[in-house]
Every structure is written in C-alpha cells, then in structure tokens.
Amino acid sequence: MPVSRRPVSLGAERAKRDTSEKTGSKEKLTAGFPATRMRRNRRTGWSRRLVAENSLSCDDLIWPIFLCDGENVRMPIESMPGVERLSVDLAVAAAKEAVELNIPAMALFPHTDPGLRDETGSQAFNRDNLVCRAMRAIKAEVPELGIICDVALDPYTSHGHDGLLTGETIDNDRTLDALVRQSLVQVEAGADIIAPSDMMDGRVGAIRAALEEAGRKDTQIMSYAAKYASAFYGPFRDATGSAAALKGDKRTYQMDPANSDEALREVELDIAEGADMIMVKPGMPYLDIVARVKRSFAMPTFVYQVSGEYAMLMAAARNGWLDGDKIMFESLIAFKRAGADGILTYFAPRAARLLAQER
Ligand code: PBG
Questions:
Q1: For 323-337, how does the pLDDT look when each residue is reduced to its tens digit (9 = 90+)?
Q2: Which residue's alpha carbon is nearest to atom 5 within ligand 1?
Q3: Active-site residue 281, yes or no?
Q4: Model confidence, pTM
Q5: Right CATH number for 59-358 from 1.20.210.10, 3.90.226.10, 3.20.20.100, 3.20.20.70?
C-alpha cells in the first residue's frame, strides 16, 4: 500500500484525542500534547540557536545614504534621527566604514540644490552631478563596496515627480528615454547596480537594451518592481528635498496598497525585461508581498525598510516606548522570514555593529 503523505490536520488530531480521552485509550500520548511540547526546543539558548529557521547577517544589509553638496558637511534630517546627509568626502568615509562593518553595498540618494531642479530633471544627465561625483570618489577609494544607484527623476525635477510631465500626465514613454540616459551616466560614474525606482512601464527593458548596446553587459539591475504609492516615504522626501517640490501624488505610477496580484505581474514583467534582482517597497506593511514574490519567482528578492518605517521605530525608541535595538532586530528578521535575501535599511550600520559584537 502506498504510504500516505497527507499532512496531519490539527483539527483531525484534536478530534481523535477528544474521543480517545473519552474511551481512555493511550493513543493520546502520540497525538499532540504531552508527547509534543513545543517549549522543549525553546528552553535553552543553544537549542533556540539550533532550531532557528532564519538568521540575519551583515551579508543581508544594504545601507542607503543621502548626499549633499560641500565639504565636511553633515546635515541632520529631522524626521530621521541618526541619519544625516553627507558631503562627498564624508560619504567616502561612510563607504570605508561600510566595508569595515562587512556591509556589502550602499545605495546613494542625492539632495539636490533646489535651484538645480527643473521641469525635465536635466541634472540627472549631468556627468558631474552630486551622485556621480560621490560614486567616482567612492569607487576610487573603496572599489570593493557595491554601489547601487537609483534611477528616477524625482531628485531633479521641479515638480518632484519621477517622470516627465506632458500637460498634467506623467508621460511614460518620453520618460523612458530620460531614464536610459540617466542610467548610462550613472554606470559610467561607477554604479554597479542600477535600481530603477520610477515605476514606468517598460523601463527595465529599455535600460537593459541600452546597457547591452553600450557594452555594459555586466551591470546588474535591481528593479523596484513592486513599489507602492506609500505615505511611508515622507521622511525620505524631506531628506532629498522632494517633499517641498512634489505636486500631487504618485498614484498614477506607483502601486495601490490594496493590491497584491498586481505585484506579481509587475515582478514577472521586470524579470522578463532583464532585472537581476527585484525589490518590494515599503517593507513591514508589505511582508505578504515579499513572501508571495519570493515564493512565486525564487529570484534574489530585496525589501526596502523605508524612511517612514525607520522614523516610526526611532520615534518610539526615543520616547522610551520601544526597545530600539530589539525592535530593530525583530523588524529585520521578519524580512528574512518573509523570504527577503537582503534589506535596504537605514539601520544597516547600527545592526552591523551589533552583529559584530555578538560574535
Ligand atoms: C525615488 C525613491 C523614493 C524612495 C526611494 N527612491 C521616494 C518616492 O518614490 O517618492 C523612498 C525610500 C524611503 O522612503 O526610504 N523614486
């Protein structure tokens, strides 16, 4: 007779136990409690370590930093306690620190002088813009650190949108050309991973084709594949200066938080178009999306614990309402449990420092 591999249903086991209790049968010893006591494996520290299903290491961390003009400048960001915009020289120092902390990669975001923003985001194509200068400087001194560079026009547009406006509409196809140009400029400045965060249709394919044509066949693309129109980006927009610029909202290109099947379609398309890695964003309120995406595609899957999540946890910790270190690690392991291979998080250096101390 073939062995049945049907999973044991808890309900059925309970029903069996109920009747066996009535009949006085010994069967109950093999069906659940007390034969099974879940707490046995949790009793000691060493045992908890042995049975842990997931773990967090420095290898999982990507450190996003903000850039500003000047030299030896640190500009605090009020809504992100502990995070500062850094001038290029200090960004290089942070890159060295990342390597010392065994963090594999950094993601760079510029705060653009408001005077340099314009309707078409022309700074995006300037080879000497802030993010390009920072990448060159970091690559010159810390070549072993992976550099991820966002592709989207919002740091550079006067209206704060990720794409180009035709009338009142974000013009998808016109924006694609701009994103391709931006990508090539950034790759030339040293970006290892191009990370389109703009949510235009077809941008991964357009960028991939342009990279091939330019002989940049090894440049990786990490697409912000399932990126939601989220209020959790508020502090980031303060940090990059986009909050003041932004007119309206991004709901015609970023996803509706009500949707989940749609995320799978977005991811599927980006993979087909040539993405090497995909990302879900924000993180904690979207763990279901991370889990579905990882399970459906088995791709290198990343999650962005965004600025608003960081702000929330920091605010509570600073008020003494939550334990900062504990809540940080709990939030990070939750991403691993959901299936993320890596996490973009402003906690990266703090987590890496504590992880190093643990050993
Ligand atoms: C730019 C971009 C945003 C974030 C990453 N890239 C903001 C936005 O789309 O408005 C958010 C990151 C964060 O909140 O930490 N397109």
A1: 999 999 999 999 999
A2: 197
A3: yes
A4: 0.91
A5: 3.20.20.70
